[in-house]
């Protein structure tokens, strides 16, 4: 609250031409902080990790059901703790906690419980970030710079290879949603990390995860106070064109970019609802949840 009061004073007493640059500098010092825990001892990625048990795999494959995902996360946490170099298990935890927060918990939000649910979302996004960071630390150069020397993660992003790309991307996804819940100051404070992440993703694989690069840049332009909103919409549309069967971008676009174009938003949300989640089999559970999110947005935001 004190941060918001100070920001209000800045806006009232300083010409708007320089407010945004001051806000970014202010945010760097005033954004919410989170605890980062790395092992000082380097733990390399396991060359041959133990296969995920069939029962856990079955739960993971039906992660569109909240109870199944929660049990899968418990199982995977045990596996990752017992096998610290199990990169695949750690990335599944990154993705799983993101899905729990961004999907299942989002679907439970209503006017009465919004504060409690957002707190739970933030906690789960933070768990996702932590597992991603542990997975990224299986890269020796990243570990030396960040875990041992204490440098900011973004300073070591150029050391990340295709081997750690999933961990870096899902760290960004969790951190971006966590920051959004924490508020504008935190979002602005972490903006440079987001940009550095996506720049590295683009360099390693410009077509990564169903139009992720344009999806990030479009969302950032729309949500940032200084962003180019028209350019952001073009970037989200480009992401949809890259991966027309991926539901997530359409839901994001309707939610943040089309509030003033209700007909277009409704059209996109109905495309999601009536689409085939199995069109991208490996993420069918996420697609099913995006369909439920689209229904929620239609019922609550675009009546």
H/E element order: HHHHHHHHHHHHHHH
Treating each run of at least 4 consecutive H or I residues as one helix, how many helices? 15
Stretches where pLDDT is under 50 for at least 5 consecutive residues are 1-29
State the separation between the terminal residues, measured CA to CA: 33 Å
SSE diagram, text form:
Elements: H1 2-13, H2 16-30, H3 54-61, H4 66-82, H5 87-108, H6 114-136, H7 140-148, H8 165-182, H9 184-189, H10 191-204, H11 212-223, H12 229-242, H13 247-257, H14 262-273, H15 284-300
Helix pairs in contact: 1-2, 3-4, 4-5, 5-6, 5-8, 5-15, 6-8, 8-10, 10-11, 11-12, 11-13, 12-13, 13-14, 13-15, 14-15
Molecular structure report:
- The protein is mainly α.
- It has a domain at 1-30.
- Helix content is 69%, strand content 0%.
Give a summary of the structure in a few sentences.
The protein has 15 helices and no strands. It has 303 residues and is mostly helical.
Notable traits:
globular, 303 residues, mainly alpha, disordered N terminus
């Amino acid at each position: 609250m004190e941060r918001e009061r100070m920001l209000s004073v800045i806006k009232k007493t300083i010409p708007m031409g320089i407010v945004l640059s001051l806000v970014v500098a202010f945010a760097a010092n005033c954004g919410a902080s989170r605890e980062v825990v790395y092992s000082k001892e380097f733990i390399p990625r396991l060359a041959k990790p133990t296969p995920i048990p069939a029962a856990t795999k079955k739960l993971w494959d039906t992660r569109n059901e909240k109870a199944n995902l929660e049990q899968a996360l418990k199982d995977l946490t045990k596996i990752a703790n017992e096998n610290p170099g199990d990169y695949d298990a750690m990335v599944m935890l990154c993705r799983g906690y993101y899905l729990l927060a961004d999907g299942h918990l989002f679907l439970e939000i209503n006017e009465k419980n919004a504060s409690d649910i957002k707190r739970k979302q933030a906690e789960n996004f933070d768990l996702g970030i932590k597992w991603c960071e542990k997975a990224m630390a299986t890269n020796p150069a990243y570990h030396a710079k960040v875990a041992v020397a204490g440098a900011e993660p973004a300073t070591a992003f150029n050391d990340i290879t295709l081997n750690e790309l999933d961990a870096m991307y899902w760290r960004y996804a969790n951190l971006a949603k966590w920051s959004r819940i924490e508020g504008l100051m935190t979002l602005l404070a972490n903006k440079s990390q987001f940009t550095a992440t996506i720049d590295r993703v683009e360099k390693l694989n410009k077509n990564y995860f169903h139009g992720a690069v344009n999806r990030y840049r479009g969302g950032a332009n729309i949500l940032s106070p200084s962003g180019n909103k028209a350019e952001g919409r073009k970037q989200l549309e480009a992401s949809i064109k890259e991966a027309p069967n991926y539901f997530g971008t359409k839901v994001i676009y309707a939610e943040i970019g089309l509030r003033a174009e209700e007909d277009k938003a409704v059209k996109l949300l109905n495309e999601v609802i009536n689409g085939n989640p199995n069109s991208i089999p490996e993420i069918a559970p996420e697609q099913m949840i995006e369909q439920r999110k689209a229904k929620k947005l239609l019922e609550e935001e675009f009546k």
